Amino acid sequence: MLLLTLIVAASCLNSSNDDASSLYSDAAITSFSLGTLTRYQHQKTDAGNDTIIKTTVTGSSYDFSIDQINHRIYNADSLPTGTDVSKLVVTLSTYNGGTVWIQDLEDPEIGILYNSTDSIDFTTPRTFRIYANNGKGFSTYTVNVNVHQQEANVMNWQLTDEVYTENEGTPNLPEDIKVLLGGCSTELYALSTDNRLMVSRDDGATWEEDLLDEDPSLLPVQDLSLTCYQMGYAENTDYVVLVGNRSTDSYPQERTAVVWRKIVDHGAYVPQGRWTYITPNSDNPYQLPRLKDLSIVKYDDGILAIGGEGIGGATQTPWSQLYQSRDNGITWKENSTYQLPAGFNYDATKVLLETDGKALWLYCSGTGQVWRGQLNKLGWEKYEE
């Protein structure tokens, strides 16, 4: 009987009769998931030697899409690099308890009866066939288990052919506006000649002093940089961060930069937002150093900052590292993912950070270098073929 069953399954898997493979609603896979997976990662020891680390991955954390029209099953979010997909245990369900056979890799004419405890090789796409429990129809699915071929949080840098020349011109500003800082969806910000923080809600036609929740003496007046981004999932709300330094003449020994933030809600009948001073905490060792020519930008899941030499009580060397804040400007830490590229010319007189959403750009005054960097994961596309 077992031999007869295998012969029947093999015959069905090799069928060329299109009518026989009609899509029956009672011959369908309704759920598909993976068990615990094994992952192998190449790392270096403290001595600089290569080693392989074996870890596990929770397969059920990766959802599989079931395309019932085209009969495809796949994970849009690929498994991590180094995941071994040659021996995977699959849990699946079928409509009305249909029987599942898997096409053999070595001999496509042979079908293997699905067993929830047996491992399956998914190094190549596999063909699953589901037979209706009444024996009158079947459906065939192609199953792809996708694995990333790159580490997600690896930054790749490229020195472009572009030569950067700093624009020495200044925008046409009213007499009482000293410097334009930037803006968000509905507001522009500037610093006045008497160091007041100004706002315009009509594209710079008129300006007024913005609202603060602390003494204006805590505002930065030099080495200014501003970035704005959508606040969480609130489509109508911007989060604005301003960093800079207080006057070196009035506060010569300060060691940290000052950070302000503003939440701008664009909804109707919402009160005007205020700038909030992020008060330094003596217990926080991760404050943004007081650096010359600070530049910040929102990139991936945080804010990146860079600056030149330390000012006053700060002793950092110019462009020594990139700092990342993942809590909207409260703490600033070195992240090993964000290292300046090999070949970066430290003779730069100023470095401007910018992003186009996927790539991070370094525009270097003095040396003219223009660097483009990108996290691998920001270049990945969802699998939807």
In words, what does this structure look like?
The chain is mostly beta strands. It is 3% helix and 38% strand. The protein is built from 1 helix and 28 strands. The chain has one helix at 2-13, and strands at 29-34, 36-44, 50-58, 65-67, 72-74, 83-84, 88-94, 99-103, 111-113, 119-120, 126-131, 138-144, 155-159, 177-183, 188-192, 197-200, 208-209, 222-230, 237-245, 258-265, 275-277, 295-299, 302-306, 323-325, 333-334, 350-355, 359-365, 370-375. The strands form 7 sheets. It has a 6-stranded mixed sheet with strand order 4-5-12-11-8-9. Strands 13-28-27-26 form a 4-stranded antiparallel sheet, with no helix packed on it. A 4-stranded antiparallel sheet has the order 14-15-16-17, with no helix packed on it. It is elongated, with a radius of gyration of 29 Å. Mean pLDDT is 88; it is low at 1-12 and 14-24.
